[in-house]
Amino acid sequence: xxxxITAAAVSLMLxxxxxxxxxxxxxxxxxxxxxxxxxxxxxKAELYNPAQAEADIRKNRxxxxxxxxLDTSYEDSTTYPxxxxxxxSVSSYEQQQFRLSPGIYRLVPTxxxxxxxxxxxxTSSNSQSSFALxxxxxxxxxLTFNQPLLKNFGRDSTELNIRVAELSKDASVKRFxxxxxxxxxxxxxxxxxxxxxxxxxxxxxxxxxxxxRILKETEARVKAGVLPAMEILNAQYGVSSREKDLIDAExxxxxxxxxxxxxxxxxxxxxxxxxxLPSRGEYAITEEDAIKKAISGRPExxxxxxxxxxxxxxxKVARDRTLPDLSLASSVAVTGLGQTYGRDLERxxxxxxxxxxxxxxxxxxxxxxxxxxxxxxxxxxxEQLRTQLEALNSSLTSEVRxxxxxxxxxxxxxxxxDRGKAYAEERLNAYLKKSEVGLATTKDVLDVENxxxxxxxxQIKAQVAYxxxxxQYLKSTGELLDRExxxxxxxxxxxxxxxxx
Length: 501
Known about the structure:
Helix content is about 60%, strand content about 15%. By secondary structure, it is α+β, with helices and mostly antiparallel strands.
């Protein structure tokens, strides 16, 4: 009696057909990347950093805002007259004064301050003297200019925080781009990992179905007395081991779907079905060009370069701040006085009573250790960043070379996996024929079928490994976002800032 394995069963095992499933979410790679860019929580959180940096820029630019001041006071005093010239014959000198002094001032790029003050003072007293006014107004319009001449002189020192904030925003935009690059690469990896696990699940189902057919026909042959009862145990063991493999495969698919749901922020519990197949085409790579692309395109390098420029600017300003604090203070004013406010303003406007002053102020700590060590600290930080930049260049070069080797190796593995599967199919066909004439046991057939299942899994893994290697290569050169049609600019952070206002 022949060992009956139908051709349909063999075909089912070799090709694998997934059962139709309801409640499926068919997802292309392009859609997956789009969801990640728009909805991934890590990406959203990272975008807040450049938006906060924009707030820092605008806060620091506010140093050039014009300030409005207003000083007002009222004073009522009763004193014993020190002189009859001012008070006359009164026994107690009573005086009331009201002051109103509006003004404006602002910082200038050289580090100086320009101000304009209009001081108005009204004085009323009980003076009986013929040599002093009893009630009068006194006003002066004063223009002041104060300017540091050594320490804190110049635009670099004045706008230090503005420039640092701008470079900090540039760096944070690059870090956002790095985060987006990593997330997109992860999405591609997890997307094809789910494809691989789904294909493996199909393979496990097919393997179980064939093992169940073998068990059924083995039981029939044992019942007919063609095979010993021991063969049923071999067939049952084959079924149980494949049931375990199927359970593990189903769990792996569900776990991977949850990983994608978190990455893409997908709602619901629908089965995620990737619709794009892994790439098998050969990708032309030149190591020299790849390294150049990485050095010019990796956002991590741009981030570190922005930090280096910022540190160099801070070092220059710190060096200037080791100089003595020598400041110029100057003012010019026109004054007036009158018994009526109108007469007072008339005399003030005539500019017949000018007052001006000019002076210098020097402040220098003996030893100057605070400024000197601040300068040295900034120099050390700058040298540290230069060293880190060299290290990152070296690391990226090594990363690109590793990625190239992975692409080359995984592409070769495609052919190896294809041949392995073809050989496994031929072996199974051969053992099926041998089993029909009693030259192969049930265990032999199951072992060979298991080898084919492993070969098919290896083929799927090889295809996914090659696609993942390409993703890692494009990530290592910084090309991945461009390949996916994704652009990153500070405008995204600016929009978030504007929406928050």
